[in-house]
Amino acid sequence: QDEVKALMQKLDASVEGKEPHPKPLQSFSHIGLPDDLLKLVMAAGFPGPSPIQSIGWPAALSGRDMVAVAQTGSGKTLGFLLPALVHMAAQPPVQPGEGPIALVLAPTRELAVQIQLEATKFTRGTAVRCVACYGGASRHSQVSQLRGGVEIIVATPGRLLDLVESRETCLRRVSYLVLDEADRMLDMGFEPQTTSLQRIPIPKIDTPRGGDDLRDAPSKKKGIPKVGIVMRRCPA
Ligand code: ADP
Ligand code: MG
After folding, report:
1. Alpha helices in 22-108 (DSSP H)
2. Among residues of the chain, what percentage have pLDDT more than 70?
3. Whether residue 54 has its Cβ less than 6 Å from ligand 1
4. Residue 63, Ramachandran bin (φ over 0: left; ψ between -120 and 50: alpha; else beta)
5. Cβ pair 201, 171 in contact under 8 A
6. CA-proximal residue: ligand 1, atom 25 (nearest)
7. CA 135 to centroid of ligand 2, rounded, Å
8. Which of 78, 116, 120, 180 to mutate to test the pocket of ligand 1 (most atoms within 8 A of CB)?
9. N or C: where does the chain have the smaller number of CB atoms within 10 Å of the terminal CB?
10. Is the pLDDT of residue 222 over 50?
11. Lowest-pLDDT range, 68-77, 108-117, 139-148, 213-222?
């Protein structure tokens, strides 16, 4: 834990939560991504994980729930996307018509699109499908993409609620939930929608049992570890 403390200081970051805190990761290759995905990440040419990634990845991968706060531009998107991809690789394949394994909620259509672009960039040529669902755009193309089955949905709350209520998708397989820019989501008055979403059959995101690891295949485990992540921007 002294080593962890020293690393946190070096990263100019602080963590709270149950000790021992997972040790920050210092390289992309330590995250446990399947080879094809790791190649895509390496190809981006980043010098290394940003602090929020370095600290957040092992926390999410150990099956902990997490609230992460970091400045705009600090790499929060890959901070939640890469562990989602590691988690996904250990799940049974999504069948046509099945709902996603990872659900990312975002307050605006622009942000949803941006997250989906990042997801697409780092899953190109792999079996991972990511659909962005947001209002103010035709439902038709979103619905047809959902029909084939998807691994990741990035959505604004209102459109997601609409799609779930009309049974175009379901959230029974969701075991990785992210609220991106959660502070803004509340500022923008999305509380009624996010509250309504809690009434539909999204599995309860429990704090996982100690020792659960998203990198373990679910067949070796009784249940699938579930993770909830809340991303917030730094207060001004
Ligand atoms: P945030 O959500 O924290 O505001 P983003 O996730 O949108 O930030 O990331 C901002 C930019 O930084 C994006 O262009 C992204 O591709 C890039 N980025 C992500 N991770 C890294 C990294 N480890 N090193 C360098 N750049 C990165
Ligand atoms: Mg962001």
Report:
1. 35-43, 51-61, 76-89
2. 87
3. no
4. left
5. yes
6. 46
7. 19
8. 78
9. C
10. no
11. 213-222
Tokens representing 30? 């330590």
What is the predicted ipTM? Answer: 0.99
Cis peptide bond upstream of 51, omega within 30: no
Q: Whose CA is nearest to atom 26 of ligand 1?
A: 46
Residues 6+ apart with CB under 8 A from 31: 25, 38, 57, 61, 82, 83, 86
Q: Dig out the tokens for 160 from the structure.
A: 């997601």
Average pLDDT, the chain: 85
pLDDT at 79 (0 to 100):
95
Nearest residue (CA) to ligand 1, atom 9: 75
Q: Does 49 contact ligand 1 (Cβ within 6 A)?
A: yes
CA distance readout (Å), 117 to 121, 122, 136: 6, 9, 18
